Amino acid sequence: MYSKIAIAGLPKSNKTLLAQALSYMTDIPVIRNKTMYEWHKIFDFHDSKNLTWKDMFLIAVSSFFERAENETMFDRFISDGASFSELMWLKLNFAQQLERGQRDVVERLEIFCASHAARQYDFIIHAGAAESDDDYVQLYRRYRIPYKIYGTDFPEQSLREIANDLRLPVKYSVENSIYQAKTNLFIND
After folding, report:
1. In 15-147, which ranges are continuous DSSP H helix?
2. N or C: which end of the chain has fewer CB within 10 A?
3. For the residues of 116-165, what is the DSSP string, one character each?
4. Which of 21, 18, 16 lies closest to 32, judged by CA?
5. pLDDT tens, 122-163?
6. What's the CATH number where 90 sits?
7. What is d(CA 15, CA 73) in angstroms, rounded to the nearest whole number?
8. For the chain, how many structural domains are there in total?
Protein backbone atom coordinates (compact mmCIF):
# COMPACT_ATOMS: atom_id res chain seq x y z
CA MET A 1 0.00 0.00 0.00
CA TYR A 2 1.20 3.48 -0.84
CA SER A 3 1.15 6.07 1.94
CA LYS A 4 2.77 9.20 0.42
CA ILE A 5 1.02 10.10 -2.81
CA ALA A 6 1.28 13.26 -4.90
CA ILE A 7 -1.13 14.31 -7.61
CA ALA A 8 0.61 16.24 -10.38
CA GLY A 9 -0.32 17.59 -13.78
CA LEU A 10 -0.99 20.70 -15.77
CA PRO A 11 -3.23 23.47 -14.41
CA LYS A 12 -6.96 22.76 -14.82
CA SER A 13 -6.39 18.98 -14.96
CA ASN A 14 -8.70 18.26 -11.98
CA LYS A 15 -5.83 17.57 -9.58
CA THR A 16 -7.64 19.18 -6.65
CA LEU A 17 -10.86 17.26 -7.30
CA LEU A 18 -8.94 13.98 -7.49
CA ALA A 19 -6.93 14.78 -4.34
CA GLN A 20 -10.01 15.75 -2.32
CA ALA A 21 -12.11 12.81 -3.53
CA LEU A 22 -9.30 10.29 -2.98
CA SER A 23 -8.79 11.69 0.51
CA TYR A 24 -12.49 11.26 1.35
CA MET A 25 -12.56 7.83 -0.22
CA THR A 26 -9.52 6.48 1.66
CA ASP A 27 -9.42 8.65 4.79
CA ILE A 28 -5.83 9.64 3.96
CA PRO A 29 -5.26 13.34 4.77
CA VAL A 30 -4.91 15.70 1.83
CA ILE A 31 -2.27 18.44 1.84
CA ARG A 32 -3.26 21.60 0.04
CA ASN A 33 -0.74 24.37 -0.49
CA LYS A 34 -1.18 27.89 -1.71
CA THR A 35 -2.51 28.31 -5.23
CA MET A 36 -0.85 30.46 -7.87
CA TYR A 37 -3.49 33.11 -7.17
CA GLU A 38 -2.61 33.09 -3.45
CA TRP A 39 1.12 33.39 -4.21
CA HIS A 40 0.38 36.35 -6.49
CA LYS A 41 -1.40 38.11 -3.62
CA ILE A 42 1.37 37.33 -1.11
CA PHE A 43 4.11 38.69 -3.37
CA ASP A 44 1.87 41.52 -4.53
CA PHE A 45 2.09 40.61 -8.22
CA HIS A 46 -0.73 42.80 -9.49
CA ASP A 47 -0.55 41.71 -13.10
CA SER A 48 -0.30 37.92 -13.32
CA LYS A 49 -0.06 38.09 -17.11
CA ASN A 50 3.23 39.97 -16.92
CA LEU A 51 5.10 37.79 -14.44
CA THR A 52 8.81 37.54 -15.05
CA TRP A 53 10.77 34.34 -14.74
CA LYS A 54 12.21 35.73 -11.48
CA ASP A 55 8.69 36.19 -10.09
CA MET A 56 7.82 32.63 -11.02
CA PHE A 57 11.14 31.35 -9.64
CA LEU A 58 10.29 33.01 -6.31
CA ILE A 59 6.90 31.28 -6.32
CA ALA A 60 8.46 27.91 -7.25
CA VAL A 61 11.03 28.05 -4.43
CA SER A 62 8.51 29.31 -1.86
CA SER A 63 5.98 26.68 -2.86
CA PHE A 64 8.58 23.91 -2.67
CA PHE A 65 9.48 24.82 0.90
CA GLU A 66 5.85 25.21 1.95
CA ARG A 67 4.98 21.80 0.50
CA ALA A 68 8.05 20.08 1.98
CA GLU A 69 7.29 21.51 5.43
CA ASN A 70 3.62 20.52 5.28
CA GLU A 71 4.44 16.98 4.13
CA THR A 72 6.79 16.38 7.09
CA MET A 73 3.81 16.69 9.45
CA PHE A 74 2.21 13.47 8.16
CA ASP A 75 3.34 9.88 7.87
CA ARG A 76 0.78 9.37 5.10
CA PHE A 77 -0.79 11.92 2.82
CA ILE A 78 -2.20 12.83 -0.57
CA SER A 79 -0.49 15.99 -1.80
CA ASP A 80 -2.52 18.23 -4.09
CA GLY A 81 0.47 18.96 -6.30
CA ALA A 82 4.07 17.82 -6.02
CA SER A 83 7.34 19.39 -4.91
CA PHE A 84 8.13 20.22 -8.55
CA SER A 85 4.68 21.49 -9.63
CA GLU A 86 5.43 25.22 -9.74
CA LEU A 87 8.89 24.53 -11.18
CA MET A 88 7.24 22.76 -14.11
CA TRP A 89 4.94 25.74 -14.60
CA LEU A 90 8.04 27.95 -14.69
CA LYS A 91 9.77 25.71 -17.23
CA LEU A 92 6.72 25.35 -19.45
CA ASN A 93 6.05 29.09 -19.56
CA PHE A 94 9.53 30.63 -19.54
CA ALA A 95 11.95 28.07 -21.00
CA GLN A 96 12.23 29.86 -24.35
CA GLN A 97 12.94 33.23 -22.72
CA LEU A 98 15.71 32.19 -20.33
CA GLU A 99 19.33 33.12 -20.87
CA ARG A 100 22.08 30.58 -20.19
CA GLY A 101 22.72 31.56 -16.54
CA GLN A 102 19.00 31.64 -15.84
CA ARG A 103 18.56 28.19 -17.40
CA ASP A 104 21.36 26.87 -15.15
CA VAL A 105 19.57 28.20 -12.05
CA VAL A 106 16.27 26.64 -13.12
CA GLU A 107 18.05 23.35 -13.93
CA ARG A 108 19.57 23.25 -10.43
CA LEU A 109 16.15 23.87 -8.91
CA GLU A 110 14.78 21.00 -10.99
CA ILE A 111 17.45 18.64 -9.66
CA PHE A 112 16.66 19.74 -6.10
CA CYS A 113 12.86 19.47 -6.43
CA ALA A 114 12.78 16.24 -8.44
CA SER A 115 15.34 14.52 -6.20
CA HIS A 116 13.18 15.44 -3.23
CA ALA A 117 10.11 14.02 -4.99
CA ALA A 118 11.92 10.76 -5.79
CA ARG A 119 12.73 10.31 -2.10
CA GLN A 120 9.50 11.69 -0.66
CA TYR A 121 6.68 10.18 -2.70
CA ASP A 122 5.77 6.53 -2.92
CA PHE A 123 3.79 7.24 -6.07
CA ILE A 124 2.68 10.09 -8.33
CA ILE A 125 -0.77 10.15 -9.81
CA HIS A 126 -0.47 12.22 -12.95
CA ALA A 127 -3.77 13.86 -13.87
CA GLY A 128 -4.01 14.48 -17.58
CA ALA A 129 -2.99 13.03 -20.88
CA ALA A 130 0.45 11.70 -21.78
CA GLU A 131 0.63 13.45 -25.13
CA SER A 132 0.15 16.91 -23.60
CA ASP A 133 2.29 16.29 -20.52
CA ASP A 134 5.50 15.00 -22.10
CA ASP A 135 7.70 17.31 -19.98
CA TYR A 136 6.32 15.73 -16.82
CA VAL A 137 6.84 12.21 -18.15
CA GLN A 138 10.46 13.04 -19.01
CA LEU A 139 10.99 14.35 -15.46
CA TYR A 140 9.46 11.20 -13.90
CA ARG A 141 11.66 8.96 -16.01
CA ARG A 142 14.83 11.02 -15.55
CA TYR A 143 14.54 10.88 -11.74
CA ARG A 144 12.97 7.40 -11.55
CA ILE A 145 9.82 8.63 -9.87
CA PRO A 146 7.07 6.00 -9.85
CA TYR A 147 3.99 7.35 -11.63
CA LYS A 148 0.99 6.51 -13.71
CA ILE A 149 -1.11 8.79 -15.89
CA TYR A 150 -4.83 8.83 -15.16
CA GLY A 151 -7.27 10.60 -17.42
CA THR A 152 -9.55 13.05 -15.65
CA ASP A 153 -12.45 13.25 -18.09
CA PHE A 154 -14.16 10.53 -16.05
CA PRO A 155 -13.01 11.03 -12.43
CA GLU A 156 -15.15 8.15 -11.14
CA GLN A 157 -13.32 5.68 -13.37
CA SER A 158 -9.93 7.21 -12.50
CA LEU A 159 -10.60 7.00 -8.76
CA ARG A 160 -11.55 3.34 -9.04
CA GLU A 161 -8.38 2.61 -11.03
CA ILE A 162 -6.22 4.55 -8.57
CA ALA A 163 -7.63 2.74 -5.53
CA ASN A 164 -7.17 -0.60 -7.27
CA ASP A 165 -3.67 0.12 -8.68
CA LEU A 166 -2.35 1.48 -5.37
CA ARG A 167 -4.19 -1.13 -3.28
CA LEU A 168 -5.73 1.58 -1.09
CA PRO A 169 -8.34 0.60 1.48
CA VAL A 170 -11.60 2.32 0.54
CA LYS A 171 -13.92 3.65 3.25
CA TYR A 172 -16.48 5.50 1.12
CA SER A 173 -17.92 5.06 -2.35
CA VAL A 174 -16.42 6.82 -5.34
CA GLU A 175 -19.67 8.67 -5.97
CA ASN A 176 -19.97 9.91 -2.37
CA SER A 177 -16.30 10.91 -2.35
CA ILE A 178 -16.65 12.98 -5.53
CA TYR A 179 -19.82 14.59 -4.18
CA GLN A 180 -18.02 15.52 -0.93
CA ALA A 181 -15.01 16.85 -2.83
CA LYS A 182 -17.13 18.98 -5.16
CA THR A 183 -19.14 20.31 -2.20
CA ASN A 184 -15.95 21.22 -0.36
CA LEU A 185 -14.44 22.88 -3.43
CA PHE A 186 -17.65 24.84 -4.04
CA ILE A 187 -17.78 26.06 -0.43
CA ASN A 188 -14.11 27.12 -0.46
CA ASP A 189 -14.26 29.00 -3.79
Report:
1. 15-26, 36-42, 53-71, 85-94, 100-120, 134-142
2. C
3. HHHHH-SEEEEES-TTT-HHHHHHHHHTT--EEEE-SSSHHHHHHHHHHH
4. 16
5. 999 999 876 667 889 999 999 999 999 998 888 899 999 999
6. 3.40.50.300
7. 21
8. 1
